[in-house]
Amino acid sequence: MERIVMSSNQIDSHGDRMTKEALEGAVKTINASRKLPYNMNHRRELPPLGIMADGQIEERKELVLLTAAPMLFSKHEMIEIEGVLLVKESFDEELLIVSRYEEGADELSISLDPTNFTSVEEFERLNSKIYAMDKSASLEMHGRKSQIPAPELIISVAAATELAKFIIKKISEDVVDDFYEAAKKKIKEFGSYAASVAKLTREKAVPKNKRLSTIFEIHTQPFIELVVKSDDPSLISKGLNPNKLIIVRKEIQKFSNHFDIDKIQFILSDTGNWKFNFLITNKGEVIGQKSTFEERDKQYKRFEIQSETLAAHRFNKPLFKNKNGKK
User: Fold this and answer.
1) Is-contact 129 76, C-beta < 8 A?
2) What's the pTM value of the predicted model, to 2 decimals?
C-alpha cells in the first residue's frame, strides 16, 4: 500500500499549521512500540483497519511532510465465543495498539470539535454554557480534520467515578448492595447532566442532517467506550441507568474470560440497550460483530474509489477501461 501524507507544515483548511518539531514528535509516536490504529475517516464506532507504520519526515524545499505507511490486518477469521460468532482480525505477530487508558483523565472532561460550529464565537458560547452547568468539568477540544464531520461530543470520566466503579465491579449475587444503592442515584444524576450537555450541543452543532455521536470514555482498565448515535438526549438518560449498565458489566466480564482486553466498545440501540460492538486485545487483535466489520469495509471501499477517481482526474487519465480492455 502506498504511503499517505498525514500532516504538513502548511496551513490546513482549518487554519492550523504544524511546526517541523511537532511533525518530528508525531514520527516518534508512529514509530513507538505501541502502534497508531489506522481508522476509517475518524469514525470511532468502526474497528481499525490495521495500523500506521514507518513514520517519516519528507522535505521538499520549504514543504515538510509527515508520511506513514498504513498496514492492513493480514489475518481475518471467524471465532465463536460462548455461542456467538464474531470476526477476529490480527497480524502474524503480536503488537500493542495505542491505548487511550494511558492518557488518564480528570474526574470529568467535555471535548468538542470546533469545526462543528459556525464560528469560534459560537463554539465559545456553548463552552460557557456547559461550564456554567458544572464548573468542575474540564473543557477541551479535539480536531478530526474533516471538512464538516458529523457532530461529536466526547465525555471522559476517571476510574474513580461511580459510573466507572459500577461498570467494572465484579458480578456477584449481591448486586443490590450498599455500593449499588449509593451509586445508583449519582449515576442517574450524571445521566441527566450528560443528556443536558448533549441537548445543548445538538442545538448548536452542524451539520444538522447528521446525527450527534456522544462518546463516553471511561478510563478504567480495560478502557471502555460507550457510544450513543442519536439526536434524542433522553436516550442517554435511558442508557446511563444502572439496570442497563449491568449488561455492559456482564459483557466485559464474559470477554475478559477469553481475552486480555485493552479497549472495549458498546453502542446504545434506539431502544436504550447497550450492545457489544468490538474490542482490542493487548496482543493487537480486533474482535467484534460481523455487521460492524462489514460497515467498515464498505466505507473503506468507498474511500478507495474516491481516491482512485481523484487520482485519475489529477493526472488526466481515464479511470475505467472500455469493453476491449483499452483505456
Assistant:
1) no
2) 0.88
